[in-house]
Amino acid sequence: MTIAAERLDFCDPIWLALRSQAEESARDEPSLASFVHVTILKHERLEDALSYHLAKKMGGEDLSPMLAREIFDEALAAAPELGDAVRADLSAVFERDPACHRYLDAFLFYKGFLAIQAHRVAHWLWLEGRKPMALFLQSRVSEVFAVDIHPAARLGRGLMMDHATGIVIGETAVVEDDVSMLHGVNLGGTGKERGDRHPKIHRGVMLGAGAKILGNIEVGEYSRVGAGSVVLKSVPANCTVAGVPAKVVGCAGCERPSQSMNQMIELGETDYQI
């Protein structure tokens, strides 16, 4: 490792931990040592490793991995805030998902994390006016990860998509920082209307599995939406909503629902899973 890389490690604890875990994994599972080395250990920055990894996932017959990597490199170099968001997302997965024991696992294998990072590049392309390429990446993310996020949708940092399969986020949707959502969540419209037509999910919200939030409505900060709920009206802050159609059934139950990931609500003496 170069002196510059050592200095970067010192200033980048997420990357340092990721490399350390990769070295340990390569020792413990020799069959994957080559994969771990080429994906992580040969790179000097987290951004470089991510660019390589995403390009291998997203590249194919229509867009070679080499050309895909050039696009990812370009975006990450032009928008350094994307790298900050990557680190915040990695931390969110590690801290909130009890099945995630290392940054390495999320980085290499968790499709929710990878889908978000590919979307961040697609969104950058969209803002740069490169809409066909942005839509191409959206299509590839849908094919590879079973997650469909329109490139115009705006996503914050510190996000977690647990399991992620079947998540759909529409064109004018906004997801603020520190949000967690489980598989099957749909941030959609209510029909063929145009313009601003998708939900706005505020900071710290937790969206349960299969929740459908439809229309240009808001889910207030630090609220919870129960699994399988259909939300058609705005949700106040610090509340729990559940049902079809969803109604307020209580308070959020904690100060940081997206971090606690508590999916139980209390009604009297009975606990119900949301």
Estimate percent helicity. 40-55%
Rounded mean pLDDT score: 93
The CATH homology group name of the largest domain: serine acetyltransferase, domain 1
Tell me the major beta sheet: 6 strands, mixed
| CATH classification class of the largest domain | Mainly Alpha
Which radius of gyration do the C-alpha atoms yield?
19 Å
Specify the number of helices: 10
CATH topology (level 3) name of the largest domain: serine acetyltransferase, domain 1
Order of helices and strands: HHHHHHHHHEEEEEEEEEEEEEEEHEE
Number of strands: 17
Distance between the termini: 48 Å
Strand order of the largest sheet: 3-6-9-12-14-15
Number of domains: 2
Low-confidence stretches: 1-9, 268-272
Please give the CATH architecture of the largest domain: Orthogonal Bundle
Characterization of this structure:
There is one protein chain. By secondary structure, the chain is an alpha/beta fold. The protein has 2 domains: 1-152, serine acetyltransferase, domain 1, CATH 1.10.3130; 153-274, UDP N-Acetylglucosamine Acyltransferase, domain 1. It has helices at residues 3-11, 13-28, 33-41, 46-58, 65-78, 81-96, 103-109, 111-127, 131-145, 257-260; strands spanning 148-149, 154-155, 160-162, 168-169, 174-175, 180-182, 186-188, 200-201, 206-207, 212-214, 218-219, 224-225, 230-231, 239-242, 247-251, 264-267, 270-273. The strands form 4 sheets. It has a 6-stranded mixed beta sheet. It has a 5-stranded parallel beta sheet with strand order 1-4-7-10-13. The radius of gyration is 19 Å and the shape is globular. Residues 1-9 and 268-272 have low confidence and may be disordered.
